[in-house]
Amino acid sequence: VPSPINGYSSSRLAVSAAAPNDLFIALGVYSPKASSDTSGTVFYAKGTNNPGNNSVVWNFSKKVSACTRLCYRSGGGRIYGDIYASQTNSAFVMIGGVDNFTTYDAGNNWVLKSKDCINNLSRNIHDDVGKIRVAFGKFFVATDGGLHSQVENYINSSAPWNNLSAGMEITQLYTHDATAQDPERYMYANQDNSCQVRTSGFDYHEFLGGDGTACKISTFNKDLYYGCIQKGEYLTRHNINGTTVDITPNLLNVLN
Fold this sequence. Notes:
Blueprint: E1 8-16, E2 19-29, E3 42-50, E4 55-63, E5 65-66, E6 69-70, E7 82-85, E8 93-96, E9 100-103, E10 110-112, E11 129-135, E12 138-143, E13 146-151, E14 162-163, E15 172-179, E16 182-191, E17 194-200, E18 203-208, E19 212-217, E20 225-229, E21 234-238, E22 244-246, H1 251-255
Antiparallel strand pairs: 1-2, 2-3, 3-4, 5-6, 7-8, 8-9, 9-10, 11-12, 12-13, 13-14, 15-16, 16-17, 17-18, 19-20, 20-21, 21-22
């Protein structure tokens, strides 16, 4: 697949009944050697299958961007995102990463769907797209903050979204921990809902904001516990004196 840099952290594929020999791909980049304006971005490429020699000829590869926003791969250490190609017109494609974009002319121009270009980029739907599906003439977009739908349209940036999960109490838990030292001491790490700690009864507090992905209570001291977001991009510790200490900020950059 053509690209200006090496090192992909993820890829998603789509096909269209309108162009059965074409292949559409979204490439999420992570490379510590890439320039700052390339690392983390999503590239779109379109290829055409040659049935005669069982190969794919790639037409181009370019960054996905609109309204001063680049499309970034979603999820930090948990790579995810999606791509969908219209089944009736192969020039129409939707790509989801941190934000959500559509193209109406085969990737030459993009429309920002998930934020309002006019009103200070306010959210239309939640960040971090995990899945895109189309049914009954509508987009269904699942993010780490809910499920939204919109009438299938690749041109209109201001088409309204319907929040299908409004009012639902949703938590996606990655990991949790407890300790034999104190049956009341408990903590859990949640996607988009931070690392939470219980000290007694229903007394919970947020220990570390963002996407909580891991947590641990010391087996020797219940007041010494750890949490991290994005699988190590930010790791902190709470010590016995009630203070929070950053152990290894930007851990992934250090390791690379």
